[in-house]
Amino acid sequence: MNTAYHSHFSIDTIPFGVFSVKNSSKRLATIINDQVVDLYKLAKLGYFDDLKIKKSVFKNDYLNDFISLGKEKTNAVRKRLQEILQDQTTIHHSAFTIHQSKVELHLPIKVGDYTDFYSSEQHATNVGAMFRDPANALLPNWKHIPVAYHGRASSIFVSGKNFHRPKGQINNDESKPPIFAPTSRLDIELEMATIIGKSNEIGEAIDVNQAEDYVFGFQLLNDWSARDIQKWEYVPLGPFLAKNFFTSVSPWVITIEALAPFRIPASEQIPEVLPYLQEKNHLNFDVKLEVILQTKDAEEVVITRSNFKNMYWTVAQQIAHHTVNGCNLNVGDLLGSGTISGKEPDSFGSMLELTWGGKNPIKLPNGSERKFLEDYDTIIIRGFAEKNGLRINFGEVKTMILPTK
Ligand code: MN
Known about the structure:
Elements: E1 17-20, E2 27-32, E3 35-38, H1 39-44, H2 64-68, H3 71-84, H4 88-92, E4 97-99, E5 104-105, E6 114-117, H5 121-131, E7 148-150, E8 156-158, E9 163-164, E10 167-170, E11 179-182, E12 186-187, E13 190-196, E14 215-222, E15 225-226, H6 227-233, E16 247-249, E17 254-255, E18 263-265, E19 283-285, E20 288-294, E21 300-307, H7 315-323, E22 334-336, H8 351-354, E23 362-363, E24 369-370, E25 378-387, E26 390-402
Bound molecules: manganese (II) ion.
Manganese (II) ion (MN) binds at residues 116, 189, 191, 223, 336, 338-339.
């Protein structure tokens, strides 16, 4: 299968990230076509003077201070960048751009807290059917609560950073004691990350119809999972070591404003949800997603295609639910969407589902097959939104699996 992705970023995208070149400090950036734009240099040249933003905000290890300025300022910077970068000559002959191959991109957000949801009905149905009962795949709470667990922020890394296959307790035959071994069921989860852009006070719930004001933007997210470790440990308190060994994100944060043209109605929720989850506009985002497996010796193979629109619970509902008890969100918190599976079997968002628990291995062009992932396999998630010639690119998140240490 060919990939529909290409690596250029349009003037409509203008995402935010953090970069460095050899021997220099980290700076904030955007990207246009394949040129990384140094926002600190632009600030020093006076391009943002009238916006009254301290220049030091742009010379920073993370986007958090910039995001904390609030939407009025960050959107003004984005608009100014679109004005400056309209001109192709500016892009290619300027003192503030550098080709993307010459920079290092860093983790753009200092993530305070990481929450992972479970909001795709097809994913929850598939997992429920495999692990419990196909006739009652969804648990009774699922259509009432946007189910989630608290993840671990310290092990979130940016695209290009690799990890070693984790070890843990595994028990495939519960009539015997568990063993300690490297996972043999290493898996991906195709997800989107929502980056919180505004905090709420402790004790103050966020109204579902105002929840999107609290969103700065989105990244691609791969929530690496060890299914054998997960199966043994998850009862009764949910995932722990099966999930916290590594999480990968893409380097560019796409603002929620950039996605405005790609809003589409979310599917009707039956039964009716409680009032605090009822939205005036029940909308998802139409963002095409694909997962590519690159084996050690082979070319790229697309193993699944899904879409951010395959969400039963919207981002706004996730935020309203997260805070309904008074829990405070902070700038830089990350909410994982949960694995995004579509209805068709070639749109499932994990190997667990694509191979149906390993029963139907994926056949690769080089003659090999995969039930789960092997050492030196590389996984790339790519995403884009496209409509009437408008294209918003999410870039990619790429990670290789290294052998157990
Ligand atoms: Mn997940």
